[in-house]
From TrEMBL:
Protein name from the UniProt record: Chloramphenicol phosphotransferase
Active site (catalytic residues): 38
Superkingdom field: Bacteria
Any GO MF annotation of the entry: transferase activity
Transferase among keywords: yes
Keywords: Transferase
Transferase in keyword set: yes
Residues that bind ATP: 11-18
Residues forming coiled coils: none
Amino acid sequence: MSPPDVIFLNGSTSAGKSTLAKALQARLPDGYVLFGVDDPIQRAPLRWHDNPEGFQFVTRADGAVVLLIGSEGRRLLAAWRRMMRAAVDAGLRIILDEVVLEPAMLTDWTDVLVGVDVAFVGVSCDLAELERRERARGDRAPGQARSMHELVHAHGLYDLEVDSTATSAEALADEIAVWLPTRGGVSAFERLRGA
């Protein structure tokens, strides 16, 4: 099977998606460009950060930190998804590092990428390890991983699932690279779309 247009990595913050994406980019013979959900958020106006119209983190009673996305944040992320489609339409192959926080986001992705060959890969990690990584990173509010741990995989459907708890990014990249040519049948995105 030919290489997919998009390798879509979905998982919680601190699951190792960005490191895996870089390892996968280095491992694959075809040129893939990396894009991540942090890209549009980091480029948003500062006034959209910690703002209910943009992106705001709220701590729940259980200590989990939930990202609330307001109207401006939603508009930005919807535009970013369409930019990813434009990149594919321009002939680029891309690796997406994404955190699917709600069904509407996944529905929009499947709509935007209709007709595109997408390999949908779930990247999971044990909660204790996620929280250890989150603390070690220092660039995430403690509690984000806890709030996202199960939420990002709630749709329950992938083409491939990998676990980064005790496996290196390089080993996971090898696993994905070996799996990619064996893909076949109806993809997870097609099934999610109801095609």
